[in-house]
């Protein structure tokens, strides 16, 4: 709609169709290349890599919202679970920690899971009534006591092992690329639990439930030191690509880039970023192909039919709640995958840095602006909005510099305005979202 | 066995804080439930609306303090600034309604679209608040700090355990009670209030009987501004003001509204107290209380804390899930759109 009026199909390049897709992707490419020319290629690649990750997150949310109309505002939680997977898979096991409390911790977690399973079993098997409520409560309370009596000593033992450097169980010491699918799996598991309880009820209940689960996951990552060191952070995650210093020490690399006329230090950093970009682009391409195939398959048509008219789809014999659960799990898994990739790129897990505005709502802006229901639209939104998110600050800084120029130096107002520029991006994102919703509700690349 | 000291410790650490917190949540949940009842969507921007009203109140409070005020006698200056905050918040909400929400109302957009639109409003409000006051912790309470301090209480009663009753907690309870009484008087006794209830119960019938929908919506935003700002200022006086904390309050507030039954004002109040008492009880370390109950010179080994305070969101969430499973329309039958 953006280019054309609502009633008449627009003419020319902005008409809906493949031409428009190419044009808009071209424009985003120009933004990135322009940033590279005017600032540095290093910065541009860094933005581009996060753009790739953002595009994958947007794909995941687009599956839930665009295909099925599910309102998930707990994206942050699933992304963080992916990050946790990166630590659990790739870090070497902490010597001594497993011996100190590993098996006991596993036993505690098993007892916790068994308690919940038993409670559900009692709930399902016993006849309705006060007795059932009492029995479920008794199972839960008893199970909780057993769980804590196993868990507390195990946690203390693990956290006592070398607390300054470790204090956690460590991971499995496997290649970090394996963590990407694992991150998807863990997120899928969490999504199953949420979906089981909140799907099939009113749509805003899912929203509130996902908002809650995301906060709980972040609280868990911040507090369970035995798992991933909590707010002490896990840094130095192994990489799937070479280190810059190794490249700089590699005579063949230095010789080649020098021959091309590049500074080896800058070239090494760019080479590493390009390697990440290659890996991420591969994942993104695979996902887009798979998502397109799914969307155009009978399954995809069924999903959209359910989204557009649940009652009619139900009358045709489709199990709406089951299908919703399926797509909710799939979309969350993609977010988990993206989260694992992001933590890989950062090389560290910092639970304190997960903010809902950045990891949930920004991804939503990407999907809405890009075009909900259109996979390429979500990808476009991912790149465009991420670029905007990063660039609004320097742009705002410049703008504010001009606006405040007439004010005397050292005035409190001027200092305050210049300091506050960083919050411009929230305002800008909200404005972009509202404008797109109002004037082009189907997004830049509308669903066909 | 020392029942008296145990009761005092319990009142000091659980009963009084949870009552004050429950009153704040109830006021917040009333705003959510009102918008849900009249405009029929879950307003994600509510936490930031609270932050906006509170921010204006804080700025006015600082202005008054700058002019040499240090409280209305024992009461904090912020109470004097509160009406200005409410007015500013009302203007802001009416502006967002005119510029943003009205368009979708005219289109009869699906509720979930309005939820997404409120997400945009949330971003903008959030940006404005942070732009003006920053992200830091702000304290603006003045006046008398305590109604009864722990030491006075010990001296008065001769007990070992102190009972502190802070002014902010007392004010919270009184102001919340007055606000709720006014709200119910308005909804049940006045013509406008009755027309709002009619509109919430059955929009078509209400329109048929000549109720002006735009007027009902305007009044709903005005009341929401008053409730949200009051809730925000009371929370800020009791704890402190930080924009991000207010955003996070969205979860317990929504949990309270859902637990009580969305669209049901009485339910929102009950829900607020259910959430607050569960949160405080589950995250309080009961060691002290239990050690008074046991034999003298004995105290339990652990802290007797069910969950660390960092997991308070888990409590709201767990209650929400339980209610969703057993009674999806809430304790007091709410509406389902």
Description of the structure:
The complex is a heterodimer of chains A (448) and B (337). In chain A, 74% of the residues lie in helices and 1% in strands. Chain A is mainly alpha-helical. Chain A has two domains: 14-92 and 170-439, Orthogonal Bundle (ABC transporter involved in vitamin B12 uptake, BtuC), CATH 1.10.3470; 93-169. Chain A has a two-stranded antiparallel sheet with strand order 1-2. The longest helix of chain A has 33 residues, at 264-296. Chain A is globular and about 75 Å long. Residues 1-11 of chain A have low confidence and may be disordered. In chain B, helix 2 (46-66) runs parallel beside helix 4 and helix 3 runs antiparallel to helix 9 (213-238). In chain B, strands 1-2 form a two-stranded antiparallel ribbon. Chain B is globular. Chain B is mostly helical and 337 residues long. Chain B has a domain at 27-260. The N and C termini of chain B lie far apart (53 Å). The chains are: A mainly alpha (448), B mainly alpha (337). The interface between A and B is large, with 46 and 50 residues.
Offer a quick outline of the entry:
Chain A is built from 18 helices and two strands.
Q: What letter string, H or E per element, gives the SSE order of chain B?
A: HHHHEHEHHHHHHHHH
The gross shape of chain B turns out to be globular
- The proportion of residues forming helix of chain A, as a percent range, comes to over 70%
Mean pLDDT score of chain A, rounded?
88
Percent of residues in beta strands of chain B:
under 5%
Distance between the termini of chain B: 53 Å
Q: Provide the structure class of chain A.
A: mainly alpha
Number of strands of chain A: 2
Number of helices of chain A: 18
Task: Specify which chain pair forms the largest interface.
Answer: A-B, 46 and 50 residues
What's the structural domain tally of chain A? Answer: 2
Radius of gyration of chain B (Å): 21 Å
Portion of residues in beta strands of chain A equals under 5%
Strand order of the largest sheet of chain B: 1-2
What is the CATH domain class of the largest domain in chain A?
Mainly Alpha
Instruction: Give the total of beta strands of chain B.
Output: 2
Enumerate the spans of chain B where pLDDT stays under 50 for 5 or more consecutive residues. none
């Amino acid at each position: 709609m953006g280019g054309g009026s609502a009633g008449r199909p627009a003419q020319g390049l902005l008409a809906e169709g493949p031409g428009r897709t190419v044009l808009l992707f071209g424009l985003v490419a120009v933004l990135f290349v322009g940033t590279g020319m005017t600032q540095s290629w290093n910065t541009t690649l860094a933005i581009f890599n996060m753009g790739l990750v953002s595009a994958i997150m947007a794909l995941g949310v687009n599956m839930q919202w665009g295909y099925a109309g599910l309102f998930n505002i707990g994206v942050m939680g699933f992304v963080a679970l992916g990050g946790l997977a990166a630590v659990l898979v790739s870090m070497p096991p902490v010597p001594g920690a497993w011996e100190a409390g590993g098996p006991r911790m596993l036993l505690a977690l098993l007892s916790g899971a068994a308690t919940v399973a038993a409670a559900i079993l009692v709930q399902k098997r016993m006849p309705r009534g006060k007795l059932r409520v009492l029995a479920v409560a008794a199972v839960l309370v008893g199970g909780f006591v057993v769980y804590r009596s196993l868990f507390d000593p195990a946690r203390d033992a693990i956290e006592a092992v070398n607390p300054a450097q470790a204090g956690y169980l460590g991971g499995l010491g496997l290649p970090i690329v394996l963590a990407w699918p694992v991150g998807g799996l863990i997120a899928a598991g969490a999504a199953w639990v949420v979906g089981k309880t909140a799907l099939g009820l009113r749509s805003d209940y899912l929203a509130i439930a996902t908002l809650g689960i995301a906060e709980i996951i972040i609280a868990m990552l911040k507090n369970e030191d035995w798992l991933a060191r909590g707010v002490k952070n896990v840094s130095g995650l192994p990489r799937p690509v070479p280190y810059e210093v190794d490249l700089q020490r590699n005579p063949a690399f230095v010789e080649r880039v020098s021959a091309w006329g590049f500074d080896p230090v800058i070239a090494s950093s760019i080479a590493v970023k390009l390697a990440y970009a290659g890996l991420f682009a591969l994942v993104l391409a695979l996902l887009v192909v798979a998502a397109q195939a799914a969307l155009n398959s009978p399954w995809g048509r069924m999903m959209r039919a359910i989204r557009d008219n649940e009652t009619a789809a139900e009358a045709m014999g489709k199990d709406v709640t089951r299908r919703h659960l399926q797509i909710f799990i799939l979309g969350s898994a993609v977010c988990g995958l993206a989260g694992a990739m992001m933590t890989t790129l950062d090389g560290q897990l910092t639970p304190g840095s997960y903010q809902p505005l950045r990891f949930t709502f920004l991804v939503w802006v990407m999907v809405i602006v890009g075009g909900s229901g259109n996979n390429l639209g979500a990808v476009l939104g991912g790149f465009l909005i991420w670029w905007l998110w990063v660039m609004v600050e320097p742009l705002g800084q410049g703008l504010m510099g001009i606006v405040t120029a007439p004010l005397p130096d050292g005035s409190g107002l001027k200092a305050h305005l210049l300091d506050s520029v960083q919050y411009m991006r929230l305002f800008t994102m909200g404005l972009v979202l509202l404008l797109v919703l109002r004037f082009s509700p189907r997004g830049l690349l509308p669903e066909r | 066995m020392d029942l008296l000291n145990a009761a005092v410790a319990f009142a000091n650490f659980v009963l009084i804080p949870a009552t004050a917190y429950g009153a704040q949540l109830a006021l917040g949940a009333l705003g959510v439930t009102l918008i849900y009842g009249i405009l029929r969507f879950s307003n994600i921007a509510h936490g930031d609306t609270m932050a906006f009203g509170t921010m204006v109140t804080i700025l006015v409070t600082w202005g008054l303090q700058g002019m040499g005020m240090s409280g209305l006698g024992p009461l904090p200056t912020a109470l004097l600034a509160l009406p200005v905050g409410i007015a500013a918040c009302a203007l802001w909400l009416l502006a967002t309604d005119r510029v943003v929400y009205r368009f979708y109302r005219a289109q009869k957009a699906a509720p979930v679209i309005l939820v997404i639109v409120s997400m945009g409003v949330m971003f903008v409000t959030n940006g404005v608040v942070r732009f003006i006051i920053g992200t830091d912790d702000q304290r603006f309470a003045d006046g008398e700090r305590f109604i009864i301090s722990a030491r006075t209480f010990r001296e008065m009663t001769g007990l070992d355990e102190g009972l502190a009753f802070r002014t902010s907690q007392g004010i919270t309870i009184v102001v919340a009670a007055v606000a709720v009484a006014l709200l119910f008087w308005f909804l049940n006794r006045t013509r406008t209030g009755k027309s709002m209830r009619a509109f919430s119960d059955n929009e078509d019938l209400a329109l048929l009987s000549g109720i002006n929908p735009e007027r009902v919506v305007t009044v709903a935003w005005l009341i929401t501004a008053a409730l949200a700002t009051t809730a925000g200022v009371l929370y800020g006086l009791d704890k402190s003001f930080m924009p991000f904390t207010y955003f996070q309050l969205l979860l317990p507030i929504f949990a309270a509204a859902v637990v009580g039954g969305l669209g049901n004002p009485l339910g929102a109040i009950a829900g607020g107290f259910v959430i607050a008492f569960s949160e405080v009880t589950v995250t309080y370390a009961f060691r002290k209380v239990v050690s008074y109950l046991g034999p003298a010179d004995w105290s339990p080994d652990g802290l007797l804390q069910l969950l660390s305070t960092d997991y308070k969101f888990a409590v709201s969430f767990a209650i929400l899930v339980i209610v969703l499973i057993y009674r999806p329309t809430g304790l007091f039958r709410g509406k389902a759109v």
